[in-house]
């Protein structure tokens, strides 16, 4: 009987230690960090467009190609343009970067300003983290961030908070919030832009990430 009581006491003590450890872990993390897995790698998307309207007679890029700024990526039929306007029929890369998606096809008639490719500069990628409104006030530009990217498993990257959005994501939603029926309050998310210090590997826009922002 005595041994049974001792065993029960040990079990209860271990349970209290385990619960205390869990509580301490969560209190510590809430005091020193703001974390979220609602984050993705993003980049500023740039469109390549023609200067004039006309038939596309040549396109020499494909998805995934790296091109230099001002590199000729396509040509249009000059139509009735004089030879002095040759440059107007040439489509050049607006930035140095990767072609994410080619949308032009030879023989297609393009309008001025119509997108034929969308590009991104891989050296200017960043993390877009969606932080709950109740925690956003703890975040300030310049805070250090630990970043893990799902594509690279447990590999950790370093970053810094670059800016905090001045709106909730729902404010820019394409579908307006219903004003009829019952109302359900939900926690809103504030977008936080996080820049990478160094990456040393190829990151892909749109892939998932987890961020841990040091707030103390």
UniProtKB/TrEMBL annotation:
Its main location: membrane. Keywords: Membrane, Transmembrane, Transmembrane helix. Residues 126-213 form the YknX-like beta-barrel domain. It is found in: Membrane. The keyword Transmembrane applies. Residues 47-120 form the Multidrug resistance protein MdtA-like barrel-sandwich hybrid domain. The chain crosses the membrane at residues 7-28. Pfam families: Beta-barrel_YknX, BSH_RND. PANTHER family: MEMBRANE FUSION SUBUNIT OF EMRAB-TOLC MULTIDRUG EFFLUX PUMP, TRANSPORT PROTEIN COMB. This is Putative multidrug resistance protein EmrK. It comes from Clostridium ragsdalei P11. The gene is emrK_3.
